[in-house]
Amino acid sequence: MTDGLSLLAVDDEVPVLHDLARMLRASPAVAHVDASASGADALGKLARRRYDGVFLDARHAHVERSEEHTSELQSHHD
Q: Which pTM value belongs to this model?
């Protein structure tokens, strides 16, 4: 068991991403936060590490909303 949560924050608006990551890191329940400014970078991080949670910008400008992307993200969680 770890001492805290491992989280991934994803947002294409870099200032928003930095603020979100900073807020998450400030929580005593969080041990690790990775930040990604693109969907491709986030998928790469998901392939290399298991996260307890992902904070994803629902209106990400560069990610198509399709079953294929949803399935790929879910496969990293299973």
A: 0.75
